[in-house]
Amino acid sequence: MKVEQIYTGCLAHAAYYIESKGEAAVFDPLREVQPYIDRAQIDNAEIKYVFETHFHADFVSGHLDLQKKTGAAIVFGPNAKPGYDATIAEDGQVFTVGDYKVKVIHTPGHTMESTTYLLIDENDKMHGIITGDTLFIGDVGRPDLAQHVVSELTEEKLASHLFDSLRNKIMPLPDHLIVYPNHGAGSACGKMMSKETTDTLGNQKKVNYALRADMTREEFIKELLTGLTAPPGYFPQNVLLNIQGYESLDEIMERGTQPLSPEAFEAAANETGALVLDTRDASDFAKGFIPNSINIGLEGNFAQWVGEMIPDVKQPLLLVTYPEKEEEAVTRLSRVGYDNTLGFLTGGFETWAKSGKDYETAGRVEVGEVVKQFEKDALPLIIDVRKKSEYDSEHLIDAINVPLNEINQHLAQFPKEKPFLIHCAGGYRSMIASSILKQRGWDNFSDIIGGFDELKETSMPKSEYVCPSTLL
User: Fold this and answer.
1) Of these four, 39, 80, 258, 318, which has the most CB atoms within 10 Å of its CB?
2) Quick check: 145 pLDDT over 90?
3) How many whole angstroms separate alpha carbon 212 and alpha carbon 215?
4) Of residues 174, 141, 179, 164, the one with CA closest to residue 215
5) What's one Pfam family the UniProt record gives for this protein (predicted)?
6) Tens-digit pLDDT profile for residues 432-464
């Protein structure tokens, strides 16, 4: 049986495509559906079904557009209550795709409608399981997301459901089955996913902490909930879009890719209250940017950081991109529900600068200069905007940790009366922080070029985390 994984690294997301005898099915598609349609056309196949493992939180699925464009039936598992036409399958129900079979296995826990799909080949042999966010490679889905939409679904209740789903529905299945999860390392839907994106179920039974056969329910719940960080703020909004429905991507693309002159761009920003989102690299942004714009580089984990740093998916946006990158930017924004892009600056920032309009710059400093300041005992305050886990692992002595996704809650830790330096691992996140600080009125600071990746290669003193259990 051939199962094609279509992986999108910036979201750590995996969709799946199967085809048999001119019939195809897509599982958990991304927002832009043309690639799936094109894939089916190569096989001269008709997309018969769009299977959804659950109502996703970290991205907006393309199931509705795929249904409209192909006539495919949308299938959810038990308990799903979408606001549009869809087939709500029963536990154990079997769907046919050519000579293949897809069996519904209801596995609540990540959410109450979460469903695993058992794939059965043309010889009636079980091949693999498409697990959604129920089972990852090395991890399982976090059970604390649904309560942000339905308050009575506490993380403890969902974790208990997940314990039963794994023990009673997944673990009894044959070891040879291939596990096809919805996400890999880098997704916020789990806490310790592997960089591998498939594995056998038998090996996962051996190495996945959540599948230990001797775990009690209480032990499972405690281990699962320990170490969970707050989910990104856009997650509940994406869940609602997936439940209630959304605007067609074609309309979003038409609106978002409207070219605007500097004058029209400025007028749109003033009239709509739109946020100016600059998607260029950190080095180019620092040399010149439109006042009050935010920098989130398109070449990084763009969609995830947009979701972290812009609280409302309905926020009107105006884009500054490199030429011919505006369509990619609008597409990637739509993947996480930011559908209200109003246009882009024609010709990019260069057009703005040549028009004579005001712009700002951001201070940056080389690592070598930081070392010189340290050697002269003239080093200012350093603020590290990496995640707490990165900071705990290793950091510069005396550096203060303010994770980027918490910056708006801790602005008081950034002094206005004296200079300071900021850094992340390599410069991507620290420039996001720089743009936010500039927008809020801070000027007396510099971003360290190269970040901690270069700082750790210097002689500057660093502190490494020591596990408390080793302090004997």
Assistant:
1) 318
2) no
3) 6
4) 164
5) Lactamase_B
6) 999 999 999 999 999 999 999 999 999 999 986
In tens, the pLDDT along 86-112 reads 999 999 999 999 999 999 999 999 999
Tokens 């036409």 found at: 85
Q: How far apart are the first and last CA of the chain?
A: 54
135 DSSP assignment? B
379 and 292 in contact (C-beta within 8 Å)?
Answer: no
Residue identified by tokens 């020591």 is 466
Report the candidate in 317, 320, 319, 309 with the shortest Cα–Cα distance to residue 284.
320
Note whether 193 and 139 are within 8 A (CB).
yes
Task: Report the relative pairing of strands 126-132 and 178-181 from DSSP bridges.
Answer: parallel
Give the domains, in start order, of the chain with CATH numbers.
Answer: 3-238 (3.60.15.10), 247-354 (3.40.250.10), 364-468 (3.40.250.10)
Whether this model's pTM surpasses 0.85? yes
Q: Degrees (nearest 5) of the Cα angle 438, 444, 450?
A: 80
CA of residue 188 relative to chain centroid, distance = 6
- In this prediction, residues 374-403 reach a mean pLDDT of 95
Torsion 397-398-404-405 (CA) sign = positive
* pLDDT value of position 148: 58
